[in-house]
């Protein structure tokens, strides 16, 4: 085959992410056992699971207790305000679909008896200190699914 016989192909301007590379999971009862977490979040409440048998509190929510292996879990409300325990800036290596958003701050937030990782919106790294008060921020996720999706972030408390 000579170079004159080659076919030319064009690359698309945008590439749809394969479902497996979508950072946010599908959130309906059909797709996940923790759909109640997303339903609560959609209603404005951050929740997690607590074991009715041993009392263990887990985050993220579970369908089986990692301590006693019971499936007797209940959803409990977490505070919508917390404190920044640790933080860093993502400057490179962001998840697919978030590359254009760098740099952004991520952190560990203490809410009640739970420490969770979260993106911290509304502040640059240099503006934050460990111990800063933060508030829950719920964001809607567009695209990638045939149903509405939400997720949580935190932002400095005003």
Task: Please state how the strands of the largest beta sheet are arranged side by side.
Answer: 6-5-4-7-8
pLDDT < 50 stretches: none
Per DSSP, the total helix count is: 1
Secondary-structure element series:
HEEEEEEEE
Major beta sheet summary: 5 strands, antiparallel
Shape: globular
Proportion of helical residues: under 10%
Q: Give the rounded overall mean pLDDT.
A: 89
> Radius of gyration over alpha carbons?
20 Å
Query: How many domain units?
Result: 1
Measure the end-to-end span.
67 Å
Overall description:
The structure is a single chain. The chain has one domain (24-156). A five-stranded antiparallel sheet has the order 6-5-4-7-8, covered by helices on one side. A three-stranded antiparallel sheet has the order 2-1-3. With 158 residues, it is mostly beta strands. The relative contact order is 0.17. It is built from one helix and eight strands; from the N terminus they run αββββββββ. The mean pLDDT is 89.
Short descriptors:
mainly beta; 5-stranded antiparallel sheet; 3-stranded antiparallel sheet; 1 helix; 158 residues
Summarize the structure.
Residues 41-74 form the ChsH2 rubredoxin-like zinc ribbon domain. By secondary structure, this protein is mainly beta. It contains one helix and eight strands; from the N terminus they run αββββββββ.
Describe how the helices and strands are arranged.
Blueprint: H1 35-42, E1 47-51, E2 57-58, E3 73-77, E4 81-90, E5 104-111, E6 114-120, E7 133-141, E8 149-156
Antiparallel strand pairs: 1-2, 1-3, 4-5, 4-7, 5-6, 7-8
InterPro entries: ChsH2_C, ChsH2_Znr, NA-bd_OB-fold, Thioester_dehydratase-like
Protein name: Zn-ribbon domain-containing OB-fold protein
Pfam family, one: OB_ChsH2_C
């Amino acid at each position: 085959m000579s170079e004159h016989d080659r076919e030319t192909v064009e690359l698309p301007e945008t590439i749809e992410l394969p479902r497996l590379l979508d950072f946010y999971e599908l959130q309906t009862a059909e797709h996940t056992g923790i759909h109640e977490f997303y339903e609560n979040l959609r209603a404005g409440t951050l929740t997690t699971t607590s074991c009715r048998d041993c009392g263990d509190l887990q985050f993220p929510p579970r369908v089986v207790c990692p301590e006693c292996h019971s499936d007797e879990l209940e959803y409990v409300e977490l505070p919508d305000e917390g404190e920044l325990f640790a933080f860093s800036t993502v400057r490179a290596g962001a998840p697919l679909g978030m590359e254009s958003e760098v740099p952004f701050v991520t952190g560990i937030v203490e809410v009640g008896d739970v420490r969770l990782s979260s993106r911290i919106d509304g502040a640059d790294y240099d503006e934050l200190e460990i111990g800063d008060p933060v508030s829950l921020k719920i964001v809607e996720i567009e695209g990638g699914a045939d149903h509405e999706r939400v997720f949580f972030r935190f932002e400095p408390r005003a």
